[in-house]
Structures
1.
Amino acid sequence: MRLIVAGPTGTIEHDGGTFHPEQQSRIFSVMDGIRALNLEDEIIHPPTPKAEWRDLTRVHSVAYLTELEAFCAKGGGDIDPDTFCRPDSWNAARRAAGAGLAAIASLEEHGDGVAFVPTRPPGHHAERDRAMGFCLLNNVAIAAASLTARGERVLILDWDVHHGNGTQSIFWDDPNVLYVSTHQFPFFPGTGRVTEIGGPEARGLTVNIPLPAGATGDVVRTAIDHVARPTIEEFSPDWVLVSCGFDAHQADPLGDLALSSGDFAELARMVNEFTPRPGRLALFLEGGYNQMALRVSVTDTLGALLGLQTQPSAPTYGGPGMNEIRAAVADRGRALEHPQTASLGEG
Amino acid sequence: MNATQTIVVGYDGSADSTAALRWAARLSGALGARLRVVHAVGLLEHAGLLSEHVTVDGEKALEIAVGAGGDPERIEWSVVDGDPCSALLRMTVAPESADLLVVGSRGSEAHEGSLLGSTSLELAERSAIPVTIVPPVHKGENPAPV
């Protein structure tokens, strides 16, 4: 299978200093992980121009985009205790969003393969008119919206340790996007309950699987199999986009799940099963803040998709969460039967 | 108009949020309202990675609130996951259904007139319930809401 790498971006701009975990060196670790695949000249690197205004406004409000651009132009600052802007952050964010669009275009051009989008800042916390959680523009949502604009149906599977509140809220009532998230809960950003199932036009097309701290890879895979798979198969996506955070790794300083790089390899194989045909799968970097874990997880995830022998660490088993999965199946069923009991999750 | 039953105040240990806490506690005591003191925990604080070390002590917050005139039986301390704005907005809907939000006025590095970087302005823009923004306190002054 062909590997398309749309990036890297964010290696120079958007510098929050070395104290901040969402730092430029993350991208260097990711690229080390890609180099470890030993594919060298076989990797396709499409050009990654900045996303255009028309691409951004499918997802974000004009007022927010205008304000974000002006905020950066005035020198930037801290948006909240987690999220910063620098003078060049606007361009970095547009470049990250553009890389996702380039990945889609390259997959279509080649007609096969898998695309990986190693960019920063990440995106899945960014809402239509808000930045938060290190995220300025919602990269995966911008790519998905470019596809739904021409009638395609998109599955976004988010395995970052944090719930993708931004992606959920953007597509809350969109019948052409199925959003599935596994995440630690309760945890930042506070959303992602199983009873958040989508708006009136997209009831059931938000699938949240909250998991307790310490959950292992077998729990995450069981959760996707039991809670999400039936909905995914019924939805029958044309495209599969992955919010591919590696902060569910057991070594990550920002999360408390207990996955190994081998678990990400297993998840990647699982996600590939949901892809309707070659050339319809793209993975977008979200979180992941332990440099070593990030590097090996990238290698093992992409290696699994490409059928390479990468010697991933063993998948993990035995953590807590199986009871929560059983409860999630029941709670989701009740919320679907009685929409008045469902939560408002549109942010 | 229904009486104010629940007041929610944002508290992060800063001088500005302490002024807001005192003001909210005094009001809750006067009205006989319940006071919920909310501290939002973001990504960096959860991981102990905030650049400036901030210690947010719930017991101290409750002491301050009681000292300012709040009824100890009607004050609750809550630690909530999320960014400050989202966490406080969540308090405005069920099950909490607060009647009034109170916050300090400081925006960390906000630019004049910009919602970005200013929790108080963003709340004022987005909240469906009344928001009181308490200005910074200078020595010898009583804080008054704006």
Note: The longest strand of chain B covers residues 34-41.
2.
Amino acid sequence: MEKIKNISGITRFSFIELFGPILIITAASCLIGFSSASLMLTVQFALCYFVMVLALQVFVGNSGVLSFGHGAFAMLGAFVSGLLTAPVRIKNNALSMTDLLQSIADIQVNLYLSLLIAAIVGGVVAGITGVFLMRLNGLAAGIATFALLGVAYNFFFNNTKFGPGSQALPGVPKFQNLFIPLLLALVALVLVYLLNVSSIGRTLRATREDNLAAPALGINIIRVRRIAFAFSGALAGLAGAMYSHVAGTVQVQDYYLGFTFLTLSMLVIGGSGSIWGALVGTLLVISVGQVLLMMEQGKAIFGLSIDLPNGARAIFIAATLVVALLWRSSGVTNGKEFAFPNFKKKSN
Amino acid sequence: MVQAILDAISLGGTYALAALGLGLVFGVMRLVNFAHAELITISAYILVVTNDLPLIVSFIIAAVVTALLAVAMELLIYRRLRGTGPAIMLIASFGLSVLLQRVYELIFGALPKSAAIAPWMSGEVKVAGASVTISSIATVVITVVILLIAGYLIERTSLGLQLRAAAIDFKTARLLGVRSNRLIAAAFAISGVLAAIVGFIVVVENPQVSPMYGVNITILALVGIVIGGISSLRGSALGGFMVGVILSLLNTFLGNARVYAYSWLFLLVLIILLVRPGGIMSKANEMERV
């Protein structure tokens, strides 16, 4: 008998699938983060990337529709949160912000509130654009979302009334410690997991597997995609805002093509079907990058020092992506959720 | 005014050629080949590096190397990924694109390399009372000739028939005796030659070649093939042409607001896609299955 295709993604709430990743993130962040100051920064960036990859997983992984537009929501979140929290004194005096609207320059809110506002703005904008965009399918949807990113980049790069334009926004307050971004990432993880096991997550995966059978079963494809798009837009907004508070600045280039493709690559390398895949992909890409960076700087890793010429790091990272896809095209985790390694012989 | 129209047509023609190269490969294997940008870049690099040789010799070297690189991409990477789905191939092609950019950086350096290629082309001549650059006329002529040749190849030869059949329905084309491996390799080779020609056209206008030289034009050409209609080669070329013309006109007529030209272009693209999801050349109700 033909084996039924193994469909990636979860269907029922399982304690282990949720708490396995939570434990791993917490342990890895604390162990690596507290070992040195430079690694602490890497861990904080990694947590921002992870939230972004989760945002992509909710929509791209579950619906199978590619989106290049999430960078736009992250950009928006970063600008909202960065402008809301930067000190009034800096906004009124910095050379890069002489054109800034006075009402933006005079406002300053608390960091936590601004994170919330950034997520809401990301979600609202994704919800509104999703009403139109979700009517599209396949490559047309991919290009349309890319157009969204293009508009956002072009606008923020040239507009000096709503931001610093092509320059960096200085004075964005940084997270005081590791636990704030860690907690935010864990909250995002739990929310995404709950959405994935809900009827929305399940119907979304049904539309991914067969977009003729799904409506025949009464699923409104456009409706579930719109909901997921808005939710993932909110998460992307949060991720962008977090990134600005780790970097301590907002620069429009940080959220453009490089960011978009780095996060999409993390998702695809790990396996887009599951949040475990999102975690593994983020960890893998960040650690390969970090190890290569340390080699480039001539630092010893586990007592072993390998010298790499400058520029070799970038080649290795890109090559890793290509090789990982050639080796396992459905991602390292194959789209499966976290499970304890099973050493018994499999019965199928 | 004459210059503005010529600029629009020549930019449109350039994007049409880039879109045709992308569309050929997309047609036979549903692959959005981001690394097409690096084919354009390598052609431009070779033209700059071999500038001491006669132009025709250095162009032939560029075309051969670019075509070989295109076929190598297919043999080493895309062939192994066939059947994994468009999203994965797209990400892989992006990875390959970044990989090649870094390799170029290692070989040619991160700073732009430049040389005066075909300097006679930057001269001006009088047409209908207005002075226009020779390069814009040359670009129009080259693109028209190449599009005519490509049109003949696609409409009148057996290879073209196979390419069109494969673009419509690859599985059925295989069942009817189209040799898939050979056809796909041929599509990559042609797309490589087209990229080399695009590389030549752009390097004459802007001889500052850096590792990311071809990225911008490839993204816009990609936008072009989607709004033109991905399932037809004619649609791809037309879409690419439209993007070039629109962008050029926006740049001419927006005045000081021309920094926002891309925003208007992308908004227009969004509107076109919402009205005709399958592109301008598609039938109204044709929808891609995810």
Note: Chain B has one domain: 2-213.
3.
Amino acid sequence: MKSPAFDYARPTTLAEAVSLVAARAGEARVLAGGQSLVPMLAFRLAAPTLLVDLNRLIELRYIRIGDDGVRLGAMVRWRQIEDDVRLVGSHPLLQAAVRHVGHYQIRNRGTVGGSLAHADPAAELPGIAVTCEAEIVAISAAGPRVIRAADFFLGPLTTALAPEEIIIELRLPPWPAQRRWGFEEFARRRGDFAMAAAALYYDVEPDGKAGNVHVGVMGVGDRPQRLAEVEAILNGSVIGPETIAAAERAAAVAVNPSDDIHARAAYRRALVGTMIERALKRAAA
Amino acid sequence: MSIPLRFEVNGKQVAIEVEPRLTLADCLRHRLRLTGTHVGCEHGVCGACTVLVDGEAVRACLMLAVQADGAKVVTIEGLSHDAHLTPLQAAFRKHHALQCGFCTPGMITTAHALLSEEPHCDAARVREVLSGNLCRCTGYIAIVEAVLAARVAYQEKDRQGP
């Protein structure tokens, strides 16, 4: 189908974008990469009266890496993350996850801010944000607001973002060089949305046991989530065949997927366990 | 609401006015009569509408025409010159990499972008990239073979420099 009619604005500064959205709060939508919003328009699931195109906002295209972690401007595209050699050391989990986002052409356009705002329950970046305890910075005429990823995703395509707010940055906490991590995803076709995916990391303590375990899953619920039950099994354990098997079983019980056209709930439960098993083996290798 | 749009398409300057909701794919086909760009799913799944925007492969159904303002767009019509097939197109013919041909413009533009950037890519990389382009008649074996066979032409171009 074709999109409904809308007005279009192409601001060149963030301040201008904020005031454009504020003037028509609730009716305006922000256009970032367009890889989710444009299909939503074509399906007429979204019908804004104004699109505010952020593609001229060069100021939101940065990847900053420092002692306080990795900061991604909202208009950073997948391709930029894939190609940034600094991230190999500074956030390998992010880079591994982003390689699974969409297809080749989509990775040339899709953005960090767009993926967070769209909040697909199977999308990789929201999953990484939740797993890594990231923060999302949004701005409105009232100023910037920092939202914990854990509080940001409320359900399928639903976030804590107010109608007049624009996402400007994703903040990922620092990544120690020795950290162990894994990312595994299953989709029928490379680049499709995950039927199930797992992102996890831990730090090995001096006694050889895993600490600071973070386990997140995507595609098996109404939003990305961390699995506290699985983290509890792994925290303070030496990661080996027995703990991995226990984590796999616990994950299958902890998630609550529903049946849909792509897979039955029981299949997704089994699949998410397998993703966690593989990610843990990759992390421990 | 109509918005002026100036951009370059296949080396020619274009200045028109478009409605904001017009996609780049529909603009190319209906306004500029460049019907080589095919529209399959209209929501970013099939890859048939792939064109090059400033050298990068993008889905023309997921980009608004107004967003191409100031950009250089190359469509399937802009890849070959003087009615000669490019090495990539010739490889598609030699390897029987098409039947109905509907997906072919998107396959060729995508493969052209890939080979321009990565002239030494392997079969796994070709398959990964072409996973974003649906073909429902030939299967992908012949398509992957054609892309791999065309690499040598891009490797030569790479050595000679731009």
Note: Chain A touches chain B at residues 1-8, 10, 31, 34-35, 38-39, 41-43, 51, 53, 55, 79, 102-106, 108-109, 189-191 (CB under 8 Å).
